[in-house]
Design a protein that fits this description.
The complex is a heterodimer of chains A (401) and B (439).
Chain A lengths: L1 H18 L2 E8 L7 E9 L2 E7 L11 E9 L1 E6 L37 H8 L2 E7 L6 E9 L9 E3 L4 E4 L16 H23 L8 H10 L5 E5 L2 H14 L3 E5 L7 H7 L2 E4 L17 H8 L3 E3 L13 H9 L5 H6 L3 H7 L16 E4 L10 E6 L2 E4 L4
Parallel strand pairs in A: 1-4, 5-6, 9-10, 10-11, 11-12, 12-13
Antiparallel strand pairs in A: 1-2, 2-3, 4-14, 6-7, 7-8, 7-9, 14-15, 15-16
Helix pairs in contact in A: 3-4, 3-5
Chain B lengths: L1 H5 L14 H4 L5 E8 L7 E9 L2 E7 L10 E4 L4 E4 L1 E6 L28 H8 L2 E6 L7 E4 L1 E4 L22 E4 L14 H26 L11 H10 L5 E5 L2 H14 L3 E5 L7 H7 L3 E3 L18 H8 L3 E3 L11 H10 L4 H6 L3 H6 L17 E4 L10 E6 L2 E5 L3 H8 L20
Parallel strand pairs in B: 1-4, 1-5, 6-7, 10-11, 11-12, 12-13, 13-14
Antiparallel strand pairs in B: 1-2, 2-3, 5-15, 7-9, 8-10, 15-16, 16-17
Helix pairs in contact in B: 3-12, 4-5, 4-6, 7-8
The chains are: A alpha/beta (401), B alpha/beta (439).
Chain lengths: 401, 439
Amino acid sequence: MKPIRAPLALLLFAGVGAGQDLAVRGAIVHTASGQPIEDGVVIVRSGKIAAVGPASSTPVPSGLRLLEARVVTPGLVDAHCALGLAGSLNYAHDRDELERSDPIQPELRAIDAYNAREPLIAWARGLGVTTIHTGHAPGAVVSGQTMVVKTRGDEVAGNVLVPFAMVAATLGEGAVAEDEGKSPGNPAKAVALLRSELVRARGYLEKKKGSEPPDPDLGLEALGAVLSREVPLLVTVQQLHDVQAALRLAQEFELRLVLDGACEVYDLLDEVKRAGVAVILHPTMLRAWQETKNASFETAAKLKAAGIPFAIQSGYESYVPRTRIVLFEAAQAAAHGLAFEDALRSITIDAAKILGVDSRVGSLEPGKDGDLALYDGDPFEYTSHCVGVVIDGVVVSETPR
Amino acid sequence: MIASLLLCWPFAGPTSGGPDELASADDVPIAWVGARILPVVGPEIENGVLVIHNGVITHLGTLDATSIPASAEVRDASHLVLIPGLVDTHSHIGEPSGADASAPIQPEVRVLDSIDVLSSGFMRARAGGITTVNIMPGSGHLLSGQTVYLKLRRGKTIEELEVARAGGAPAGGMKMANGTNSRRDPPFPGTRAKSAALVRERYVAAREYLRKLEAAQGGGDAKAPDRDLGLEALGEVLRGERVVHHHTHRHDDILTVLRLREEFGFRVVLHHVSDAWKVAEEIARAGVPCSIIVVDSPGGKLEALDMSWGNGAALEKAGASVAFHTDDWITDSQLFLRSAAIAVRAGMSREKALAALTIEPARMLDLGDRTGSLEVGKDADFTLLSGDPLSVYTQVLETWVEGKRVFLRSDERDRLYALGGRGAGDDFEPRSCAGEEEP
């Protein structure tokens, strides 16, 4: 066995090292940081982007592996999903996105429920998604924490960009408990529960400063991070008055608010802009019913026109599809008034900015992670294929999809 | 009269946008000139002409080879693409209901008794270019009721939308299901074998019912059986008058449907067919058509875990007849064209994919002689597009059913259902009133 084992180990080691160095050449390279480059080249060294430019002035060093495609984009960033927690079967054993035992559980960490081998992650990755903001799904007043993670690897360790990104909250009909008799029974009560808990967390922080610190409380610690503006409160709201309730709370507690979903935000653009709040917009093809019945294909274009920072998410479906794909959701926005480059930015650099990871991912610039997606045509066209995906300089997918 | 006027949209008038056209469509022929026409049956026509009159297609061809009637109103359709109206074999628009929890097999229940034709889903379907739908009850039963085929005319009663079959009764099929959706506590089946046994028992009963009916009709002493609405409807299935629309996912469940069909001889369309790629040869050999769904990611349950975007390509390669369906609200009627495009992405031919939105589903509903392709003599059911049907950037501009426009994107109210926005989720106003009244 020995003579076989040694070369294998060497090969594997060599494989990882070699995989982190490569070059990608595209007939068009969309960098998401500047103008598209015709016949562009991206050089990746040790997993990081070393150079980006026209092929004429960016030579590919000999011996470097070269991937070629019609269109090259940054690896896509899904601004919000429940991937890794909500499984493809949707049976109890792979349904970890929502804990219903209590309406407020900010102590639940995404990393403790994330299954890196969930097939849906590979599915999204194969279509170009390299970074996801995932965690506890909407459906409880505070459902838990979220994290930002790369879509590579069999284990979560080593692939997490931000272990505690935001605290996920829900207001409106979406927060109402499913079982009759359970609280909150209506949207007003949901706001009251959240306000009460934030007040409690404020008291907890005060006490911590005093001479007799309180017993540690994991939930209040997490909400304390929101109150001290270390992490944003991500509030999923769809209807107009629920968006207003979220803005009201943010003002009262001086929170860093990120609006999530926000179906009817098109009727509140001035207020949202004035509040300086970013929006992680619902998937464009969101099922329009109940509190999302007034969703519009044009909301992304309206947010752009209003100058409100936004990203497009794949979101969370309690039924099917088990996951949407941000590429397709941005495509639909591009078909409904959002310019191509803006649509691409909504699933790359603009998403990365809202998630606070734009120094690492979201655009093709020297020093950033070597995350790229390759397409054989306009990435937004239904009939184009994703022909390659690279994460940290490693080719993670080459099957046309 | 006053009551009906009050129902009207307050700002509606005879000159507002498109609805006035509802009045003129029958009076004179209308010719669309210069369009790229995809008739689906027959080759693509560049710089083509389509003429309609009295609800049917009267002329179709290239501009230089087609005579346009002198009386025709001519419309410039250059830069536009004209395709047949889309046919959706499986939709749940109009908030339909079907069988209840009392029994697993309820063939006497009719979905047509439950549909709200003013619900926004109908406008969304028109906005998606759909002109014909099969509205079905759900799949939580072995047999959840009779389905109904509708033309998406702009009426406010279901009767205005129905299609009559031979004899005058409203056309429709029968919704059945196997696999895991219909497995529950008794009286529902707990296993697949029990599912098949329960269905088989009912088919045997229906066969016996038909035999007694025929014996009674033959004269002599034989007495007709007491009328049984369920067995009567199943009898229509056995006689081939009512097609079974069968929800099925897993490869062996698909084959179980084929086995039952072999035994009882009913006509069937397989629906969803997640595992189609595994048994495409068997499906093709049986000559059974498939209406498949395209969802953005596989799963949702074990039996749908292997769902493939390549199902259309696999069935095409095997030689089976393929249609797509929306299963609205599973996928959105406004985006029905997208299903075909994703199937092309996964290897299906463009020609078969377009046929799978039009003529193939029309045939599956026994309406292939009336709709589903652009041919002289067929119903004037068509859709005007801004570009190629398989491009994400293409918009449905107009949808016409039997010579009447039922969707106009440039009309502000219609546009709401194409794009969404405040009010898009609510019932829409019936338009057959006031100045918009048809003559």
